[in-house]
Amino acid sequence: MTLAKEKTVVDIVRADFPILKEKVNGKPLVYLDNAATSQKPLQVINSLQDYYQEYNSNVHRGAHCLSGKATDAYEGARDRVAKFVNASSRQEIVYTRNATEAINLVAYSWAMNNLQPGDEIIFSVMEHHSNIVPWHFVAQKTGAVLKHVELTSEETFDLDQFKQLLSDKTKLVSVVHVSNTLGCINPVKEICHLAHQQGAKVLIDACQSVPHMPVDVQDMDCDWLVASGHKMCAPSGIGFLYGKQEILQEMPPFLGGGEMIADVYLDHSTYGELPHKFEAGTPAIGEAIALGAAVDYLTTIGMDKIHAYEAELTAYLFQELGKIPQIRIYGPKPDANGEGRAALAAFTAGQIHANDLSTFLDEYGVAIRSGHHCTQPLHRHLDIPATARASLSFYNTREEIDVFVKALKETIEFFSGFLG
Ligand SMILES: *Cc1c(COP(=O)(O)O)cnc(C)c1O
After folding, report:
1. Where is the Aminotransferase class V domain (predicted)?
2. 192 is known as an active-site residue
3. Which of 20, 67, 330, 414 is the most exposed, fewest CB within 10 Å of its CB?
């Protein structure tokens, strides 16, 4: 009997992702841009195809069989998302196009209607542009004042400074759970507790946490939480807003039209129940159903297991990058088990521009991100024009990290010839 190499869990998982078998520039794809968007397993791709092939129909409208089936699948996916983040009711989950739209929903529906001149909004210097620009709109329209939290010497959220900024003027705190650039995991539960003591509401941007660790909105006690499907193995064009029921109940609709109404007259209308009040027009039906399939997929593997495996990869990534003297990684260091930060590394390599790094690595089949990662204020704060970023997922392997690090070393060596 020949000894077959034993299949590991990650081998089995990788077989679900057809794209991982693709070649790029003649080399096996090494996809390390998961913080920009994740890849999709067959289970998700198939659920989208099944919808279009077998029961494509509009939701909440037809009395016919296909519409009933589509409605059940669409609403069933909402139940899965609610359970996934431990919402207390399915009515607390509103489908949106993405996290950006979810933040804008809160900005237009809640903040525009509740903030007065002099009221304060606190976010942090590490926020994604999607969690900054909507607050610019709100400040311009309402006269609210924007305050921001900076970084500790470890390049993490400065909780002490946050405490100093908080006051009874604070009406809203909007912060990222896990930074897409620094990789730090912010103390969101404590942030919610402190903000609530001042009577402020809290929005958590969970784009980079929901795909990688268990997230529990009731334990966190946030008022709203947003995430994008495409970063959690689901298609693009679907995301969600979680909001506490009593708060969503008080908020006026964001967009008007079909699907969100109870009754319409020529001069006024009454609105539907939650969550439909916030879902105007025909939604992204297949995408929502596929989001449900993605949640099933992640849940079957287990968010605890995903987090633990990614921590192992993080420890290895930092160990290997640590051997390259030119590399400066931003954000906190992981502990010996790879815990304490996200499975990503945004870095610079001496004088080499990040775009040159990613272009050269592409020749090796390695996909990493370069640029400002939609965190321009953070890059300005760190006084760097750009970083390169490798971001991992549960389907990545140590062997892929080896390919990446080897390609990176060769690229740095090549440039050292003329950059010194
Ligand atoms: C990706 C991302 C967003 C924006 O997500 P969209 O899908 O583009 O709406 C917001 N915040 C963080 C931390 C992100 O990583």
Report:
1. 30-404
2. no
3. 414
Q: Is 124 in the pocket of ligand 1 (CB under 6 A)?
A: no
Nearest to 309, CA basis, from 12, 5, 4: 12
Which CATH number is associated with domain 9-37+302-419? Answer: 3.90.1150.10
Distance of CA 67 from the midpoint of ligand 1 (Å): 32
CA 338 to each of CA 84, 207, 214, 261, 419: distance values in angstroms, whole numbers, following the listed order: 24, 20, 17, 49, 33
CA distance 344 to 346: 7
Q: How far is the CA of 126 from the centre of ligand 1 (A)?
A: 12
Rounded distance from Cα 136 to ligand 1 centre (Å): 17
Pair 240, 226: CB distance under 8 Å: yes
CATH of domain 45-300: 3.40.640.10
Decide if 9-37+302-419 and 45-300 have a common fold: no
Pairing status of strand 344-349 against strand 387-391: antiparallel
Q: Is the CB of 181 under 6 A from ligand 1?
A: no
Catalytic residue among 65, 184, 192, 374: 374
**Contacts (Cβ under 8 Å, ≥6 apart) of 272:** 259, 260, 261, 262
Q: Encoding tokens for residue 211?
A: 């795909």
Phi and psi at residue 72, to the nearest 5°: -60, -40
pLDDT tens per residue across span 138-164? 999 999 999 999 999 999 999 999 999
Does any ligand 1 atom lie closer than 6 A to the CB of residue 128?
yes
Element (H, E) at 148: strand 145-149
Q: Which residues lie across from 327 on neighbouring strands?
A: 349
Annotated domain spans of the chain: 9-37+302-419, 45-300
Chain segment 347-370, per-residue pLDDT in tens = 999 999 999 999 999 999 999 999
Residue with tokens 């159903």: 289
Residue nearest to atom 8 of ligand 1 (CA): 100
Which runs of consecutive H residues, i.e. helices, occur in 106-208? 112-114, 133-142, 159-165, 188-197
CB of 98 shorter than 6 A to ligand 1 = yes
